[in-house]
Amino acid sequence: MKLYSYLARKRWPATYEGKILLVSFIGVHVPMFGAVSYALTADPTPIMAQLDVLAAMLLATLLGTGATLFVMHSLLSPVRTASKAAQAYLKDRTLPRLPVSYEDEAGILMSSLQECIIRLDSSIASATYQYEQLEREHSEKFNMLSGMKHDFRTPLTHILGFSALLQSSSNSMAQDPQTKAFVKKISASGEALLQTLNSVLEMSDVESRRQIEEDSEPCNLTEIVNKAIDLEHLHSEKAGVSVAMDTPGHQEVFLIRSAAETLVSTMLHAATCTASDGGSIEIRTGEGSDGVRITVHSNVGQFQLEDVPQNLAYQLTDLESNSGTIGRLSEGSTPITLRLSLIDTLAKALGGEFVITQSLSHGINLTVMIPQAGDLGVSPLGNAA
Fold it and tell me: Fewer CB within 10 Å: C terminus or N terminus of the chain?
């Protein structure tokens, strides 16, 4: 890689194919020029008498160079094809149709790239579907529970308040034994209904926690962080951002593995998108009273008003928009908005909480706190604690 790295830093030739052809040209001509020079200096025959031989050698050299460059250009076509296929997928998500029947290094490159893109596309489609389904289920359940709390608790509060007022009233109607009995029944029924509602809501919360426990498994969080750094290596290298990790050598946690892997990768990608060339990102993990804590810190960069979803904007003050104005809520959005929303959704799916902090002097902190088995109030076997 040292020779390639050296040539890649040079502006000419700009393309990989140009570098190969330049090396081929030099490789053909240097020996030829050496042989011609030796022949001319070693032979006592005057140079003018050797012009015909010199012209023939020069013509043969030109023909050989042309043929070599043509063949090299043709042999590099698999590299060009693979490069164009990768760029087309990254830009427009166009699935390639690369040949997969060749068994040399170039053929393996094309077949491997074809398989990688197909697997990646399937994974993206699956992740998108799961995310949309998770978001939809979360939204429906949240709306249902919010509706139950509002539709039942508010009128029940009114009923209980009015019955308490009647019981304490000194007017003659309230002193009537039959009225007192009715008021007492109303109060008792309201209390019973409110208790039932609270029990239903509590059972729903327990069921959600139990589902999290059933889907969770022992995971090495350090391994998950390492994998996320590997996945984001391309983006961080292109952005000129260094990525470091501050984690124990082995940190076993109890999480939904797929959700945790997507969560850490998305947190790292969101931080990378805001960092500038020369910046640094650090991923820190640890355990505390609130469970597992995952923090992605970027020493440079700031979220703009359009980057932050409306349901998370309350955590930040004085957000500046792309136009330079200061506010709390924005009508627009950016690709970072979706990533922050996904982090928040995954944190909730893991029973945790997502917190954003940022300042000009300390950069950005993306922190997710996830409770562990026992902290959720449900045992690993799924029984209420």
Answer: N
CB atoms within 10 A of CB 79: 15
pLDDT per residue as tens digits for the range 322-373: 655 555 555 566 778 878 888 888 888 788 889 998 888 888 999 999 887 5
Averaged pLDDT for residues 79-97: 83
Contact by Cβ (8 Å): 305, 327: yes
Query: What is the dihedral sign for C-alpha 18, 21, 23, 26?
Result: negative
Q: Is 88 left (phi over 0), alpha (psi -120 to 50) or beta?
A: alpha
DSSP label at 321?
P
pLDDT band at 248 (very low <50, low <70, confident <90, very high): confident
Token pair listed for 253:
């946690």
3-state helix/strand/coil string of 122-165: HHHHHHHHHHHHHHHHHHHHHHHHHHHHHHHHHHHHHHHHHHHH
What are the Cα distances from residue 4, in Å, to 1, 10, 19, 87? 5, 10, 9, 21
Q: Specify the CATH number of the domain 217-370.
A: 3.30.565.10
How far, in Å, CA of 168 to CA of 198, rounded?
Answer: 26
Question: Regarding predicted confidence, which is higher, 155 or 376?
Answer: 155
Helical residues (DSSP H) of the chain, grouped into ranges = 2-8, 16-42, 51-75, 77-92, 105-148, 154-168, 172-175, 177-215, 221-231, 233-239, 257-274, 335-349
Domain parsing of the chain, residue ranges: 2-75, 93-215, 217-370
The conformation of residue 307, written as its DSSP 8-state character, comes to G
For residue 364, give the 3-state DSSP assignment.
strand
DSSP label at 232? T
Positive or negative torsion for Cα 137, 140, 145, 148: negative
